[in-house]
Each structure stands twice: as structure tokens, then as C-alpha cells.
Amino acid sequence: MALSDVTKEAVLETLEEYRALGPDGFHAKWGGSDKNVDYHVIWEGEFYPSKAIVNAAHYKVMGDPEMLEIRGYSGGLKTMIPVLQRLGFDYTEGKVNWDREEMMLALDLYLRDPQPGKTSKAISEVSSLLRRRAEQLGRVLPPRFRNVEGVYLKMMNFRRYDPSQKASGNVGMQRGAKLEGFVWSEWAHQRKKLRDAASAIRLGIETGTQVGEAFSDDLDSDLAAEGGFEYRLHRRYERNPLNVRRKKAAVLNANLPLACEACGFDFEKVYGARGAEYIEVHHKKPIHTVKPGSVPKLSDLALLCSNCHRMAHRWGKLLSVEEISRLVHS
């Protein structure tokens, strides 16, 4: 019999057995392990190792509960997941590579304390942040996703790039992702900027406005490249409909035109009805200086035309409205 013969009833029976026996009892009977599991079956809000569950269910369908005929299957996308999909079970997505912003948080932690204990409070906090961030991105998280051990190991990966660690004989983990080297080269010698960047990432996660790599904006792709995560996060604040309405309403209530505060451009004057009540809202403060959950003051928001707004953000360095105005009128 093939894995395609496994039934939903057999998987449900196996899940019940796992729950009754517990992990140690189940694996003592059927083999397998809960260690280094990439894919999990999700059943009634709990996570179960996909390979062990499906293999045991397969043996039951074969009529071989004593496992006299042993068949080994690798767990994963090409074997267990098609079975779970066919039978309508939910499952976690498996390994998720670290992205740039996650590595920046790990590097910031490493540079602040290159010799942390695995149980340190700082590592636990970063682990919690990364799990929260992944949930905001809509991921179904396996139990080990960005756990304390995983964050610690990622930090240790940075040791192989650290001259001070090499000098003392602490070479760290020698195998890792190429992206680690790029992140080290970009940020390790700019610690103040990295601290500010990490603060902005934390702010985005804590306030639920984290935009991350998955939310890059094609329209702003050049600025996103220049300003990175902080630009995207800043734009998320600026596009908040509540902030836009509040600022525009305050200007209109004062019988003032919705004109650019830097160059004076008025969309309605140029484009007529099509441009009526159109203007972009700019957040004056660097995003890492904004307190989590705070509502911006109207004085922190400015009206800018599209050109001045893009220039305010260009090259990853936020210019003030006054600086942009001087450039326009120089």
C-alpha cells in the first residue's frame, strides 16, 4: 500500500493515540521523534509531527500495527504534505528562512552582548517579537519557529564575521545563510544606525504596523531600497486614513488650501475637480522616535505634493519640510 491509501480516519485515530500516549509513549511504540520537525499537523489547536503521524497511520491502513514491514519515508513537502492536503488537515509551512529584518534584530542583540546565555531575557524578548511579527504576516507557526534556541544560534552565526571573536578563538557557527554576511557588512560598523533601525522594527511589531520585506511597494521601490524598512514603515504611518483625514480636516476648517507646505503646489488649481482635496500627508518625525501606540499630533504631520514628499524621503535620509522648501526656492 502507498501513502495515497492513508485515510482520514486512520490519521484521526493516530492523533488520538498520540494525545493519549504522549510524545514519549507514542514514539516508543511507533518510532520517530518530535525533534527537528519542520512540518506539523494542526489538529484541534495543537501541533503534531507530520512524519510520525502519517507513517503510523499508514502502518494501520496496511494492517501492520506491529510494524513488521518497515517503510521509511522522508517527511516534508513531497511526501507527508500531499497526504495532509488530500485529507483536509491544516499544517505548518515548514522551515522559513530568516529575512533581513529578522537578522538585523539578531545582529543588534549580538553587538550589544556577544556572549549571552541561552536563557537571557533579551533573547527571549527577541524570540517573542519575531513570532509576533510572523503572525502579523499571516504565517502558521510551528512550535519551534524563532524559539529561544533558534535566536541564540542565529546570533552565534555572526561570530564568524567578528574579528574580535576570531582573535579570542570563538569562531562561532561556521555554516549559515549568505544573507548573514551581507547584513554584517551593511550594519556591523554602523551601530548607532543599527540601534535606530532595530528600534523602528520593534516599534512596527509592537504597534501592529510592521511592514517588512513582504510588503514592499512597487510604486515606491526605489525609495524602499534607499530607506529600507524604515521608509516602508514610515509610509504605513503616513497612509493611515485616520491621520490623513485629521490633517486635511484641520486645514480645511481653518479655511486654508490643501497646498504643499514646501513648494505651494495646489492640485485643485492645476487639475481642477480631479485634483480637489488631494494632497499627501507626511510624518515629520523619524519613525524610530515615535512611541508605540501613540497618535501623532497634527503639528507632526505636513501636507506635501508628491514630488516634495519623495524628495523628503530620498536616499534614506529624512529631510525636514523647511529643508525641502529651501531646495525648491534656492
Indicate the topology.
Elements: H1 8-30, E1 40-43, E2 46-49, H2 50-62, H3 80-87, E3 90-91, H4 100-112, H5 121-136, H6 148-157, H7 163-167, H8 178-187, H9 191-207, H10 221-238, H11 241-253, H12 267-271, E4 280-283, E5 301-304, H13 306-313, H14 321-329
Antiparallel strand pairs: 1-2, 1-3, 4-5
Helix pairs in contact: 1-2, 4-5, 4-6, 4-8, 4-9, 5-6
Q: Can you tell me the residue ranges where pLDDT is under 50 for at least 5 consecutive residues?
A: 211-227
How many helices does DSSP assign? Answer: 14
Q: What's the mean pLDDT score?
A: 80
Largest sheet: 3 strands, antiparallel
Radius of gyration from the alpha-carbon trace, in angstroms: 26 Å
How much helix is in the residues? 40-55%
The assigned structural class equals mainly alpha
Shape: elongated
Give the ordered list of helices and strands.
Answer: HEEHHEHHHHHHHHHEEHH
Distance between the termini: 80 Å
Strand segment tally: 5
- Order of neighbouring strands in the sheet with most strands: 2-1-3
- Tell me the domain tally: 3
Strand content: 5-15%
